[in-house]
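Summary for the steering committee. The consortium agreed at its last meeting that each partner would contribute one worked example illustrating the joint modelling workflow. Our contribution is presented below. We chose a case with several input lines so that the handling of multiple components could be demonstrated. No manual editing was applied between input and output; the record is shown as generated.
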Amino acid sequence: MKGTIHNRDSFLNHIASQLGRDHRTAGITRPAWKHDAPWEVMKDYTEEQLLEVFKKQCRNIHTAVIETSKTQLPGVLKKLVSENGGGPVIIPEDSRFEEYGLTRLLKQEWPQENVPVYQWQAKKREENLKAAETSNFSILFSDYTLAESGTVCVKAKKGLGRALHYLPANYIAIVPRHTLVPRLTQAVHDMNRAIGNGEPAPSSIHFISGPSNSADIEMNLVVGVHGPLQAFYVLV
Amino acid sequence: MALKINEEKFDDRVSQGLQDSFMRGAVSSAQERMYTRRLSAAEELGNWEEWRSLGEQIRQHVLKNLDYYLMQLGENVSRRGGHVFFAKTGAEAVQYIKEVAEQKQARKIVKSKSMVTEEISMNEALIDAGCEVVESDLGEYILQIDNEPPSHIVVPALHKNKSQIRDVLKKKLGYEQSDDPYEMTKFVRGILRKKFMEAEIGVTGCNFAVANTGLICLVTNEGNGDLVMSIPKTQIVVMGMERIVPTMEELDVLVSLLCRSSVGQKLTSYVTVAGPVTGEEGDGPEEFHLVIVDNGRSEILGSRFQPVLQCIRCASCINVCPVYRHIGGFSYGSIYPGPIGAVLTPLLKGYDDFRELPYACSLCGACTDACPVKIPLHELILKHRQAIVEKEGHSPLAEKLAMKMFGMGTASPSLYQLASKLAPSVVSPFTSDGRFGKGIGPLNNWVNIRELPAPSKERFRDWFIDHKKRGTTDERNHS
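What follows is the complete predicted structure of the assembly.
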């Protein structure tokens, strides 16, 4: 259902009159930008070079990178969780958990070992928030991974909301190697092209670079303010 | 907090700032760190000037077509189910926000840092209406419980040391641990986590709105803004009307410039682009309101001050300003301090209360060089001075008289010669060791903190004539 819009015409007509013309309702296109600077960054880097940049940047943002294979992934996750206080674990709806061979871990091994696993659900707002607040770990897949800033990008969709990025104490992003791009430029270009082709934009897009932090007290860096205290990227 | 943060006179505010040795130390060390970080973040890119030109071009294009992009944004937010309110004044914006709170029968509101909500005194109005409004940015929260205004756009509690913060937490919240920033932060995390979970309405600002998607971008390191837009069932976004980009491609450029210029990071920990939900994500706001605020900005459009609307609130101008370094944020009397405040505050609130701000500047131009979107800040400050003197006739009587006498003296060669000849002997009672001492009326403000050389007994003209003669003689001797 469409939302309401109040006072638009008088507001926009006034702006147009301040600009010395009539209100424009169509025909505006973006000009040719002077520079291609964003595309120049790491322009000809190979995947290996991007990976090096990514790993180096993750050290700067207090984020551990663990490299593994699809077959080793369940073991790596199990070790990470048990070494950092155990469960509960929260995950979104995402077919990639099955694709990456994690069904057994999530549905059998962890529950049997007293590590509760909660799956975020499309229509269960209150339960989702309560589970996220009490979870020790959230585990998600990165949609785009930005080498320059050590960032994972996750798009919201059915069964994948917002608070599971921010409420649990620890954050694990599974990073498929093919999601690695030089920087923000490639990710937003891809998403903007899809929008231009008529695809609806996700209701939220989260670019996350390591754990929450603040330097508000005498410029001292404190890691872990409102969101996760630790972040781990598992590169597959 | 309104845009004007206190009623004291400018000179008194400055004196207080100059006497606050902790604040001055904190500001200069913070400036040093942020300046170095910004420089290295810019250098890493290798073509920073191209980035700045691109940022400037994007901002100028948006301002030139602001009505179009705001229309597009409004339609896209509405299409997604969000409500849009265009507010001509701060009062209209606040009234709408209060009505939303009343409709939702909300009592608990949590918010993330937003300069525009400070500007329109939103918190006070909601508190008067019986709501609890909790700032969730760590620095803003500390200031809120201590009832103090921010002194910096990005690091709002910069003027407070950790012992003072510990005392505030102890007095207001019963905190009993040390002044270790980690311990204090952990304590505040516990309190605010509860506030997030209980909140019925979340209020955020808006770093940039993306016109072609109807989404809002928030840039934080703490993640508080993200919790504000994840948990409460109703979200209200308050944006200054100029904070908009056409698409996410331009967002890339401006967010990159913002993060590097404000804190020297490639990206902050959290950059989130979000809007109304579809209802299938499992959380997020069920009701979404976007309040687009003019509050004096449209009067700047089309004027010679229009470039100030390019501002992306990174504070890099504040972080290089030598005047801010000495007098601190409170001296500006506005929530917008430093060079950007000296330009913007008088435009939004007039010269009556803020006529001194354009003079709180040495015109060194460091702010202009630092600005990531190339706002010619020191030139705009100079334009304010012109406007004050020429149009408003606001220059002090003593300054007018001094300028008139200077004009007369320099217009007449004989008067000028006489004055420059007499000057050393006229001022000699007030000088020693070739410089002015203290206690000479209008010169006091200068000589209290810097040296002022006395006029030399030998005038340049005499020196020149003498050397010219000697040069001619030397040349003859050599030939």
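Chain B touches chain A through 111 residues (CB under 8 Å). Chain B has 23 helices and twelve strands.
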